[in-house]
Amino acid sequence: MADSNYSFVRMLAKFSAAGAVPATDRTGRALTAAGGAAVVADGGALTGAYLTLDGTGDYVTTPGTPDVRLGAGDFCIDFGVKTSSANKCLIDHYDGTNTGWQVFLDSSGHVVWWNDTALKTGAVAVNDGNRHHVAIFRVGGTIYLAVDGTIDGAGVANTRDHNSTKTLVGIGAQVINRNSSYDLAGAFDFVRITIGVSRWTSAGFTPPTLSDLGGIYTASVTETLGLSVSASARAIWLGSVAETLGLKSSANAAYQIGITETIALSASAAGRRLLLGEVSETLGLSDSASAKALRRASVRETLGLHDTPSAKGLYRAHVDERIMLYEVEVRAGSYDADLAVWAANLSTAGHSRYAGFGFNSFAFFDGHYYGCKSDGIYELSGALDGTAPIPWTVTFAETDFGSTMLKRVANVIVGAKSSGPLALKVVHDPAHIYAYPVTPSGLDARASRVKIGKGLKSRYWQFELASDVERVELEAIDYQPEVMSRHI
Q: The whole model's pTM is what?
């Protein structure tokens, strides 16, 4: 699912294609590599590759323009990192004044949020050589750290106004006040700066997936739609115009446009594009078409094909209204990890969703469970996915408890046996999810009371039970709603 806060993103460096460091991030910010910084394919990375730094002069910078000032409100800085280093700089925007900031690793591998002092230091070491999602965010005047979706210690009050512009934002080194002893030996798969919203609260959360880093855009205008420079590969633009469509430079997304007058396609079209044009007067295709381009056009007056078409070009005419341009980017590597599979229990009609598990189907035969992947059939056993626990979520049906009135839910009784604490989430909508701990009194406990926040009220309620590491045997869930005296 796409990032609902994408409009607040001021920097998003996604390192997904092996080779040189990309020239720009996904927001169009320039990226500059130093030393031997490069992107290397790695199936363990969220994006499929890592920006790799060797600890000796390797880092990446982007200009410290005014749009990356954090200001005095909510913000979130998060990234995926893998390292075994300590006492090193992760993200640098510090010039020696307290309006700058820095994300640092101390000598024990704990994450530090630094202004002109170590304002907040975590207690979870992230320098164990494994990939971790790290988030530093301010919500309502309090700074929090989180590692892999778990809040690391108590929040710290802070309302500092980061209102001045610094020269650079650095990844993997202290670059503004340069000190090479803080150069990081490690890897990043993405770095994101979000300003104006905290993304998360003091409760735990599920770290972002690859699809959570993308945006969706919709635009409607009455005069002109101009698409300039390269568009992000994972974005979608829908545009409706009444006069003119101009496509400049290389488009790298999907565009759907309806027009009534003229369409002009200039320069060479990308090699694997499909262009469908419907116009009422003239369709002009200028310059040589790429060898693998397919163009279909239908006009009432004139079809003009300028210059000599390539030997493999195909041209057909018969449309009178629209043009559609499609391009598909296929990511290299195995697709097993991108699969999301649903399994149904025929006895109870219950459904389970398995995402990132790598199997396209399941079977139970002769007392054993099996999963099918693109490279063979595996017998499934044990409670771990390799060496890692398997995260899970149970989503309960939305309910209004049989009443059209507003309701509060004071308590939820969870009847379950688990190996440790669970989380119960209240889902008001995708942007408002509240999590509460479910802590059983003992491993044999079958009922735990969860107190829901008093400020929540709604006609419809939906709950989710989840854990990233614990196992559970769920027997029942019992809500204790309080019906209020008025309708919505």
A: 0.48
